[in-house]
Amino acid sequence: MPEMARVLENRRESPWTHTLFFDREVKCAPGQFMMVWLPRLGEKPFTLSYPNAITVKRAGPFTEQLAALEPGDPIGLRGPLGRGYPLMRRPALIGGGVGIAELRLLALASEKPIFVLGGRTAEEILFHEEFRKLGPVHVATEDGSLGAQGLVTSLLPVQAPAYAVCGPERMMAACLDLLPPERTYLAIERYMKCAVGLCGQCTCSGWRVCVDGPVFPGTWVREMEDFGRRRRAKSGRWEPV
Amino acid sequence: MRPLPRIDPPLVNASGILSYPEVFAAFEKAGACLGGYVTKSVGPVEKAGNDNPVVVYSAEGGAPVLNSLALPTQSPEDWEKDLASLRLQRSRLIVSIYGGTPGEFARVAERMAPYADAIEVNLGCPNKVPGEQTIMESIGQSPAVSGEVMRLVRGACEKPLIAKLSPNSDYLAVAEACLAAGADALGCGNTLGPGLAIDLTSRKPILAGTTGGISGPALKPINLRMTYEAYARFQCPIVAYGGIATWRDAAEYTMAGACVLGIGTAFLGKGTRESAGLTRAIWEGVVAYLDGRPFPDLVGEAHRLPAPDLTHA
Fold first, then answer.
1. Which residues of B touch A35 (CB under 8 A)?
2. Which of A159, A240, B56, B208 has a CA positioned 20 to 30 A from the CA of residue B243?
3. What contacts A68, CB < 8 A, 6 or more positions away?
4. How far does the CA of residue B60 sit from the closest CA of chain A (Å)?
5. Of A78, A161, A156, A69, which Cα lies nearest the Cα of A118?
6. Mind listing the pLDDT tens digit for each residue in B99-119?
């Protein structure tokens, strides 16, 4: 059953990205997700960026509506759901685009993290100033407006005892090729319906991302033939990632 | 009548749960104690189904679970590709099918039969995309139309056929028509209702499809009754579904008359390894209860034992 919360603040992080704070704190492991419901508009999965906020990139009708919410508006929350990241010491947190937001709670829970962040432009490097207070931050942008010019993979490998990767799936697949899978965790995204393991919609090579993930060990992801390649659309039809 | 394929252990997933071949393979690899897997219902044309939310359940558990997927399906061609690539090591595959007309059921059955050890004919899904008619309304309520579906499906494929009934229908009449038209077993049964849940803040129904079929613990006594009545009348093979979450539920359904037991809502919130553990716990509990007797001995036992003699109580 979704629980209704109220929006406290809609904070614009970049021209495309908003952090929505609500009046309910969720006790969760970093990497767990919420099903966020707007009555009559839909319900989609989002990972928490604060105990009481999600960070949303405007990418379609539903996220446009989320980005347009104002203080006092109702927002339905179901969760926390799924499995998050394990606790890690000195992890390298590797984020791409809005996936960087998912690393925020993990960064706060980790001992001495280092950051490896990528985006198209400087504006996509979310929480950059905040992260700099927590540890070293390495940045690559495609247009060179912040840090090195290029993709996040150009910053790899970095030495760390553990790695967490969150971003576009092809970026994560490219990172996994450069990292030790037994010390790497990745957050997989799929179209979700029930989000509690019943319907099978969010399968990635047979693992149901909603209950077996969304965070998976790199050793498992290495074995997933669908990762980086295909996912099921709303009807169940395969489509390329 | 054709016998059902040997499903050993006699546990399956319910259609619409787990749904896809690669999930079945992952369950089998994780050691799930399921002798068969049932696909999501395959329909005649690609359909996206309802928007989210598609489920309602209480965080505390125990309350009714509602779902309103409304039969999303990829095209039969895409299902053929998926099923052709499936390699189950030990378990049987049951393909669930539906259509909008009896002829559509038959066409889907014909295409899916080469991949299936049995075909389950979905006559009872209570869900719909707002505005459309449900299978249950158009077909599953009517013994005559359900019988026509089964007659055409029977003519279109040689595989054992399971007629999956709705608890919301005159199910014994529907079952009789289906068995007369060539069904080999009954599925008892689909979800109940549909039911409704309303959000108090927006003052609107929660499900995007407005209503949803009721499953889980709330459904168990109803489909248990259906199983009991169907066995008493027909003594045919019965695949039972509805709130089976423990070995006790499984044993009750078996004594009511089921020879195969389907698990669905009990997987809610459970990852693959935990789900596999649940199936093992259910089957180990049934085996312990059997105490050395073979499982078929227990099927329908509630109908055979003499009534207790209360005269000396």
1. 52-53
2. B208
3. none
4. 10
5. A156
6. 999 999 999 999 999 999 999
C-beta separation of B275 from B29 below 8 A = no
pLDDT digits (tens, 9 = 90+) for A159-205: 999 999 999 999 999 999 999 999 999 999 999 999 999 999 999 99
Residues of A with CB under 8 A from a CB of B: 1-2, 4, 35, 37, 39-40, 42-44, 74, 76, 78, 83, 192-201, 203, 205-208, 211-212, 226, 232-238
* Contact assignment for A4 to B72 by CB distance below 8 Å: no
**Exposed e or buried b for every residue in B90-119, given b needs 16+ CB within 10 A?**
ebbbbbbbbbeebebbbbbbbbbbebbbbb
Maximum Cα–Cα distance for chain B, whole Å? 66
Which residue range(s) make up the domain with B169?
11-49+68-194+216-304
CATH at residue A145: 3.40.50.80
Q: Is the pTM of this model over 0.80?
A: yes
CATH number for position B39: 3.20.20.70
ω into B9 cis (within 30 of 0) = yes
The whole-angstrom distance between A197's CA and the closest CA on chain B is: 6
Please return the burial class of B3, using the count of CB atoms within 10 Å of its CB with bins 0-12, 13-18 and 19+: exposed
C-alpha dihedral over B7, B8, B14, B16, to 10 degrees? -70
| Alpha carbon of A117: minimum distance to chain B alpha carbons (Å) | 31
Pair (A165, A228) in one structural domain: yes
